[in-house]
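sry for the spam today, last one i promise. struct tokens for design, 247 residues
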């Protein structure tokens, strides 16, 4: 992919005078690919035409591929995080599994932040752009929220739960493919937002809310325009207020 994006970044620099790194173009390209993927998902991967297991598998594999395009073999980090968390949920009591998952995932996330900080501080050649902490934070949110929802569903008296907890409580341990797809679904792997497990599965299975949902064209276009506006402010503003001034 760098074979294509490196010349493109040079062309953009020639036209605009703004240097855009290849890894930044990859990130933007994968966001656009995700948008195309969401269109394909909405029109071709509906539960009425595709088995749920296939739907879950394809959305998770697509999310893994998007992560790999951006950060290469760092993909082993979220895979380790998700598989480790699932083993904890599967083989420990719901009374304590949420605590273990929280400690495990936060330890992995902390290690990611420290590793990225080390790369930026000491300028390891070829790795200074390996900041994969944003998707790791999204995955950590999903894993911890699901583990606490499982604890609410298995260990708490329903009368003691708030309305929000009742809505999100999970009363069945997810299968591996359900857990895996929830963690890696391409619809939010890059920048979120957090979606609770029950709502995610309802959308995957084709709930009533999904059937009655209005067209998403206008909200999506508006979000993209806002994003382009912020990117423009960052790129243009960065030329006049470089980050080195903060040093």
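last one done:
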């Amino acid at each position: 992919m760098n074979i294509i994006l490196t010349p493109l970044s040079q062309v953009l620099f020639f036209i605009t005078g703004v240097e855009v790194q290849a890894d930044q173009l990859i990130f933007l390209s994968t966001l656009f690919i995700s948008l195309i993927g969401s269109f394909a998902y909405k029109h071709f991967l509906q539960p009425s035409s595709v088995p749920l297991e296939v739907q879950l598998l394809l959305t998770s594999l697509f999310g893994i591929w998007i992560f790999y395009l951006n950060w290469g073999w760092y993909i082993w980090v979220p895979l380790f995080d998700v598989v480790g968390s699932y083993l904890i949920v599967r083989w420990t009591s719901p009374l304590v599994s949420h605590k273990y998952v929280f400690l495990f995932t936060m330890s992995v996330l902390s290690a990611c932040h420290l590793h990225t900080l080390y790369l930026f501080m000491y300028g390891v050649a070829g790795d200074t752009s390996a900041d994969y902490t944003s998707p790791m934070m999204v995955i950590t949110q999903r894993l911890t929220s699901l583990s606490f929802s499982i604890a609410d569903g298995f260990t708490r008296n329903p009368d003691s739960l708030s309305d929000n907890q009742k809505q999100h409580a999970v009363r069945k341990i997810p299968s591996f493919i359900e857990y895996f797809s929830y963690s890696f679904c391409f619809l939010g792997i890059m920048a979120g937002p957090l979606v609770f497990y029950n709502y995610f599965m309802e959308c995957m299975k084709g709930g009533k809310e999904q059937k009655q949902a209005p067209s998403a064209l206008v909200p999506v276009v508006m979000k993209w325009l806002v994003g382009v506006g912020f990117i423009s402010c960052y790129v243009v503003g960065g030329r006049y207020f470089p980050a080195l001034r903060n040093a």
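Residues 30-41+51-208 form one domain. ok im logging off now
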